[in-house]
Design a protein that fits this description.
Blueprint (H helix, E strand, L loop, with lengths): L9 H14 L8 E2 L1 H8 L3 H13 L3 E2 L6 E3 L32 H16 L5 E3 L1 H8 L3 H13 L4 E3 L3 E4 L4 H22 L5 H16 L5 H12 L9 H9 L4 H11 L5 H15 L3 H26 L11 E3 L2
Antiparallel strand pairs: 1-3, 2-3, 4-6, 4-7, 5-6
Helix pairs in contact: 1-3, 2-3, 4-6, 5-6, 7-10, 7-13, 8-9, 8-12, 11-13, 12-13
């Protein structure tokens, strides 16, 4: 059984995995389900496990008995509790697959809230409710607040008076200003970082671009890796922390490509790949000034591509969003 999408909340992932196993008959009937062993198995806290079990109980797939925990009992018949060490096999799950996203909780929440914000900001101005987000993901409010602080550093969300978190709108003016900022800062950052870049690292980056050019349908993950290679990893050696922070905050237009891919299924732009390839080849040949100049030209062309894509997004229907996001305008 494959893992549930990481875009789902953690309790929803656990609920769906267990529900499928019970309904499909692969989980052992009568098996006793306890919060702590399940939390350990899924690499999570007890809170999302408890919510998942509550849902399964309401659905009549598990039942209470004269003991701790629940019994897997979709037929609602009398049966003896089967107390076994909880394992993927006993639940009918494939232990070779990652059952639930097991990255550190803070990292996962940053990515999930970031993905939701990335989807919404092209369609308007939104307010984010901290407590509702904490309830949605089954985490503390402190975890959500920490995630939002990190997303603020990326320019995805901003803190307003009275503790309101606001996101969007991503407008043509914002895209233009971000690219103008990046065109000023990134080439100089590359010029400074380039001499210290590892050749094997650059060769790996170039190979990813070549693979994407040869692929009829490049995945979103591959596209984002290629963007990260040039615009983050190649600039990682920059010593000026203030400039580095400004560069990170100006990279929000890359969100448009992500939304474009998810809504329309359109992969990597051939022109973007060709420009990345040229810059990486120049870096490999030690032509650092030429690479920096081409990076500036690449960002200028990318600005026009992003503005065109933003126009397309403006006529698409708004996408469903989690309940913790509320549209203001």
């Amino acid at each position: 059984m494959k893992a549930v999408s990481a875009s789902a909340s953690r309790y929803a992932m656990i609920h769906q995995l267990l529900r499928d196993a019970i309904v499909n008959g692969t989980a052992r009937h009568g098996l006793v389900l306890l919060e702590a062993p399940l939390a350990e198995l899924f690499g999570t806290s007890r809170v999302p496990v408890r919510k998942a079990l509550d849902l399964l109980h309401v659905e009549g797939l598990i039942c209470r008995f004269n003991g701790r925990g629940y019994l897997i009992n979709p037929e609602g018949v009398a049966m003896e509790p089967l107390r076994l060490p909880l394992s993927a096999a006993h639940l009918g799950l494939n232990d070779e697959d990652e059952l639930v996203d097991t990255r550190p909780l803070g990292e996962r929440i940053v990515e999930e809230i970031g993905a939701a914000l990335s989807t919404c900001i092209a369609f308007g101005h939104y307010r984010l409710d901290e407590q509702a987000a904490a309830d949605h993901y089954g985490v503390s409010r402190a975890v959500v607040r920490e995630a939002l602080m990190r997303l603020r550093d990326r320019g995805l969300v901003e803190k307003e008076p009275y503790s309101q978190w606001l996101a969007g709108p991503l407008t043509a003016r914002e895209v233009t200003e971000d690219y103008e900022l990046r065109a000023c800062l990134e080439p100089e950052a590359l010029r400074q970082s380039a001499p210290n870049l590892d050749r094997a690292l650059l060769e790996a980056m170039l190979q990813r671009v070549l693979d994407a050019q040869d692929s009829p349908q490049c995945s979103l993950e591959a596209i984002e890796q290629i963007e990260e290679d040039l615009h983050q990893r190649c600039l990682a050696g920059l010593q000026n922390r203030k400039i580095a922070a400004l560069i990170r905050q100006g990279q929000s237009p890359m969100i448009i490509s992500r939304i474009f891919y998810r809504l329309l299924g359109i992969g990597a732009d051939p022109a973007m790949l060709a420009e990345h390839r040229l810059i990486l080849e120049l870096l490999l040949h030690g032509a650092f000034d030429a690479a920096a100049l081409n990076l500036r030209e690449h960002l200028q062309r990318a600005r026009q591509r992003m503005l065109q894509r933003l126009k397309v997004l403006s006529v698409l229907p708004e996408q469903p969003l989690p309940a913790y996001l509320h549209k203001i305008s």
